[in-house]
Amino acid sequence: MSTTNAFRNVPVTGNLTKEPAQITTKNGPMVTFRLAVSDRFFDREANEWKSSPTEYYDIGVRNKALQENIMASKLQTGDRLTVVGRYEARPYVTKDGEAALNNRLWAETAATSMDFRTVSVSPKQSGPGAEQETGVSSAQVQSQAQTQTYTQADRALDDAWGINH
């Protein structure tokens, strides 16, 4: 069994390494994507800008409304996003037998950067007709989210991302 260190409400801002994909697990649909994060800093001794090593974060989205909005946004590789969610550091062993760490974030909210892209916001329909749009009431989504255990969801995402324990 692997050790998991989890933290809530962790913001991560980075660039998409590939377009988001909707997958189906035994626990239902999920959207997954990966962010590459590299900070820039000014090295005063060298008198130049440098980049930190790139870190990668695997993002999992279980919230149905957020899944729909991400998929409808037509995000592309290279787009800059900020995702806030439950962070987990999951140790694993590489094909070469080396210890490594998988950075995972279970998204609670996401936003695209307006630095390099224009954004138009369309309000979601709410009220009695909103259920017709998605086929699921907010009470059903909330109930499902509360009853789903992280262990089942973690295993499904591990399988989807090809992480063996």
Structure characterization notes:
It is a single chain. The chain has 165 residues and is α+β, with helices and mostly antiparallel strands. The protein has a domain of 103 residues: Beta Barrel (OB fold (Dihydrolipoamide Acetyltransferase, E2P)), CATH 2.40.50. It is 22% helix and 42% strand. The chain is built from four helices and eight strands. Strands 1-3-6-8-7 form a five-stranded mixed beta barrel. The protein has a two-stranded antiparallel sheet with strand order 4-5. The longest helix has 12 residues. It is globular, with a radius of gyration of 18 Å. About 4% of the residues have low confidence.
CATH class identity of the domain at 13-115: Mainly Beta
Structural class: alpha+beta
- Overall residue-averaged pLDDT value: 81
The N- to C-terminal Cα distance equals 7 Å
Strand content: 35-45%
SS summary, helix count: 4
Q: What is the CATH topology descriptor of the domain at 13-115?
A: OB fold (Dihydrolipoamide Acetyltransferase, E2P)
The fourth-level CATH homologous superfamily of the domain at 13-115 is Nucleic acid-binding proteins
Helix content: 10-25%
Q: What value does the Rg take, in angstroms?
A: 18 Å
Low-pLDDT stretches are 145-150
Which word captures the global form? globular
Based on the coordinates given, report the CATH architecture of the domain at 13-115. Beta Barrel
Total beta-strand segments: 8
